[in-house]
Structure formats: structure tokens, C-alpha cells
Amino acid sequence: MNAVTEKRGGAARALALTAALFSGLALAACQSGPAGELSRIDTAQGSSENISSLTQVINANPRDPEGYNVRGSALGRGGKYPAALKDFDTAIQLKPDFYQAYSNRALIYRFMGDQASALNDYNRAIQINPSYDAAYIGRGNLYRKAGRTRDAFNDFQKAIQLDTTDARAYHNRGLIYQQQGQHNFAIEDFSTAISLAPDASEPYNGRGLSYLALNQEDNAFADFNMAIKLDSKNAEAWANQALVYERRGDKAKAAKSYREAVRLNPNYQPAKDGLSRTSAG
């Protein structure tokens, strides 16, 4: 993708999707980071070695806006946000209709907490190229975080209508369906996201929640296990696995999984509550 990959690990998870109750137990909510991407940041692409190579490319052709866009993306992946902004600014100065650079800069603004500037850049990218799916997905996540669910849904829907192959569009539309209790639609979208990004853990975790909502416990358990296999640091998946164990009456295994979720994210309340329930006595 052209947009800088979401920094899920380092960024605070911003939006709790759902907090349903099943058999008196709180369903651990699936959460996503600022831009809702499906995978952790590729820090190798933001390494000093890679930045140095990209700088050499820019030095050889300092009037090429693409070089600044690529280096800006790498800097963003490395968490060097001010430097990334500077590169995207230069890319846009050299090429005012560079819609990819606007969309990439928008994501950096999001990481930095400047949602208004992010929205302006997404709007500008879409104005320049109304068929640019990544900008709709990015803006949709911006809207979702702001609670503008209908606007978010429309943006994800637009990206899908553009025949996007970006799993984020389906994953995030699935999250909205899940919020609305439309779990069959959510499962369909999560399944499509899995087919497009089979190594991402989040769609498995999301689909597992909807399976659990439909009392398809075995399917849910399989999905939570797969989410953990793909990303052993996914605290929500550990908590959701624990919830299945708890529903089955296996408090020892539930407590073990809740404990791991708390270790990974000490502030994750569903895991803390679950550990308190299963460790009592």
C-alpha cells in the first residue's frame, strides 16, 4: 500500500468496537489503532540503513517528488514523524497534484494527533483522484475514530466499490457491521479481509467475536487461536481465547490466558476483569 503502515504496537489502541454480554461474561472488545491497519509496522523499512539508501537516491535526483514520498513513508514507519512531514511537504511542493503524498501525510498527521490536518489532506487526495481507495480507507478510519460511523461506512463502501484489494476496507466495514449487531455481514467482510491479508491477526480476532455473538463457539475459538498464532502480542485475542475457556468452565486455562493479555496490555480492562473473575479464590 502507499500509505504508511499503521503503528499498532506503539500507538495507543483508540476505539473499542463492542462490549456485548454472553452468559454474563463481558466479551473482550476488538480494538484498533489510529488508522486501523491490519499489521504491525515494518520497522526494517524505517531502519537507518534503508533511510540512508533512500537519501542517496534523493541526492542523485533532488527534483523527483517520488523519492521524497518514499523516504517520507520510510521515516514514518520508523516513527520519525516531523522528518516524514518535511519529506511529504517537499514532494507536494514539487508535484502539487501528488495525491499519494497527501494521503501519506494525512496518516502522519493522524499519528501526531492533528486530525483536522489529516482530514484536509485526505479530502485533497480524493479531490485530486476520486478513485484513490487508500484515501477513502484512511478517511474512513478518521471518521470511525470520531464516531462518524455513517461517514466511515460510506468511505469503506466506496473503496470496496472501487474494487480495492486492500484488506483494511473489508476489515473496517466488518467492524462497523459488528458494532451494529449485523454479525453475518461482519463475518463475510472479515473472511474477505483474511483472504486478502492471510497473515494479519485482527480479522481472525474480529471474526471470532462475531462467531461468538452467534454462539458458534468452536469457530470463534479456532479464530482466536489463529489470531494468537499470527500475533502472539495481540492482547485482545488472548482475552477472547480466555473468555471461551471461561464459558466452558475451565477457569485455570482462562486465568492463564487472561494473565497473558494483562501482561501484554496492563490497561486492557476486559482482561483485568476476566482475570479477577477466574483467579478468585
UniProtKB/TrEMBL annotation:
Organism encoding this protein: Aquamicrobium soli
UniProt keyword annotation of Signal present: yes
Keywords for the protein's UniProt record, in alphabetical order: Repeat, Signal, TPR repeat
Keyword Electron transport set for record: no
Protein name per Swiss-Prot or TrEMBL: Tetratricopeptide repeat protein
TPR repeats: 65-98, 99-132, 133-166, 167-200, 201-234, 235-268
Gene3D superfamilies found in the cross-reference section: Tetratricopeptide repeat domain
Transmembrane segments: none
Taxonomic lineage: Bacteria, Pseudomonadati, Pseudomonadota, Alphaproteobacteria, Hyphomicrobiales
